[in-house]
Structure formats: structure tokens, C-alpha cells
Amino acid sequence: MKYLQLEKVEMVFDTRRSRFHALRDINLSVEQGEFVSIIGHSGCGKSTLLNLVAGLIMPSSGAMLCAGREIVGPGPERSMVFQNHSLLPWLTVYENVRLGVDKVFGSTKNKQQRDEWTRENLALVHMEHALNKRPPEISGGMKQRVGIARALAMEPKLLLMDEPFGALDALTRASLQDAVMEIHGRLKNTVLMVTHDVDEAVLLSDRIIMMTNGPAATIGEIVEVKLPRPRKRVELADDPAYNQHRAAVLKFLYQRQRRPEEAA
């Protein structure tokens, strides 16, 4: 079932000096329950594409549909996880997640149900031990877990992630990648994630959308990742299929889409 559909989407920004053509002719369908990553060099419009799907900006032309409805702005069926966790520092971990729960479910769940739902989502990311801590009192990886819990607690049909692990150290990043795989395996939710990390894209994704260089970037190629789930990173290290997918993405990024300064 096609849950997300983008048809002939164009994005042009008006600047003081001229018009900047960020994205051109974007055609993409994402199936319900699919995990799709978007990868490409800096400036290729990855985050712009994600912001379009989130409804934070509107396309210059083209159509965008989510669950059969036109995307005309932000909606509760779509939640975003940013690279910066964006937690409110004066609220506790529990309160940061509860804020979103009250906003979305204030009229459909009673107080006890909203409390239970908040705790359940924090348990999903293994943060139930830090309910009463505030963001300055926890690590960067823990903050990002809370950000993911807050997004999941809104029960989105489509989870959008903009380089959610980009600012984390390698070990914390690996731990959160495993957590996201576990959550996706349990919830079967639809995920669209922007990343710069080839290994991350291959490990997590069902398909990898590879963008051409900007300006006027578009979808260059799509790699279908045919690896069984659940996936274990250590076992995949020597898996020929894993390395084949990884090589295909690297070849596109560093040979077919080589930066001009590198090709000189």
C-alpha cells in the first residue's frame, strides 16, 4: 500500500539576488511499514525534501499525498525527529513527552491513559529510569532517545528523521540505531530518514534514495536493500549482500556524483 506519494515535486526558493532551484522532478512512493533512507552530498536537498513531507514548507509545484490526503501543512500523522533533540530544558524527561501526548490525545484519552501512554513510550526507548531528570542532566544519546519517544508518543503513521544520530559518538550512535531497528520491528511504522552515513542507511533501510548533487537535485538511483530482518550489525559485517549494497551506494556517491572540487 502506497502510504506516501510525491509526484513531480519542485522546490524553488526566492532569494534577494535570484531564484534557487533546490529540487526538481521528485517522484517517490513509500509503502506502509517501509523504512526508507535519503542520502546524498551536502546541499542536495535532503532536508528540504523531508521538510516538504513534514509540511513545514510547501512545494513550488507538484503533488504530495500522505494516506491518500494532500499534504498542506504539519499534521499529527507525521512526526519529526531532528538532529538537535529540541527538548525544553525546564521540563523533565516525562514532561517533555507528556506535552505532546496532551496536545494530541487531550480529547481522546483521560489523564491516567495519557500518563500510561507517556511512560510506555519512554520505556520503548529505555528511558523509564530517567523520568524526573531534566535535559541538562542527561547525555546527548539519552536526549535523542527522549526526542524519539516524544515523536512516537504522538502515534504518527509516518516518522520523519533528519540525521537523528549525526551529533552523537560512534558507540551511542550504534546503540540508538539498534533501538530504532527494534522499535520499527515492533511497531511496523513507516519511516523516512535523512542520513550522511552509508553504513547506517544500509543497516536500517528497506530502500535507499540516492540524490544527485544540487542545485536542482533529484532522485538519481534507488537501492533496494534485500537483507532479512531482524538485522545484527556484527553478523552483517562479513555478509556479501550487505557489502554489495554498501558498494552500490558508495559508487553512486563518489563516482557518479563526485563533487566538482574532487573531480579536478
Structural notes for this entry:
It is a single chain. The chain has 264 residues and is of the alpha/beta class. The protein has helices at residues 46-54, 93-105, 111-124, 140-153, 170-187, 198-204, 233-236, 240-256, 260-263; strands spanning 2-14, 19-31, 35-39, 61-66, 69-70, 78-81, 158-162, 190-194, 207-211, 219-224. A six-stranded mixed sheet has the order 6-7-8-3-9-10, sandwiched between helices. It has a four-stranded antiparallel sheet with strand order 2-1-4-5, covered by helices on one side. Strand 1 (2-14) and strand 2 form a beta hairpin. Helix 2 (93-105) crosses helix 3, helix 2 packs parallel to helix 4 and helix 3 (111-124) packs across helix 4. The chain is globular and about 50 Å long. It starts with a strand and ends with a helix.
Largest sheet report: 6 strands, mixed
- How many whole angstroms does the radius of gyration measure? 19 Å
Number of strands: 10
Helix content: 25-40%
- Strand content is 15-25%
User: What is the mean predicted local confidence, pLDDT?
Assistant: 90
What class would the helix/strand composition place it in? alpha/beta
Distance between the termini: 45 Å
- The largest beta-sheet arranges its strands as 6-7-8-3-9-10
State the order of secondary-structure elements, H for helix, E for strand.
EEEHEEEHHHEHEHEEHHH
Helix run count: 9
List keywords for this structure.
six-stranded mixed β-sheet; globular; single chain; 24% strand; disordered C terminus; 264 residues; alpha/beta
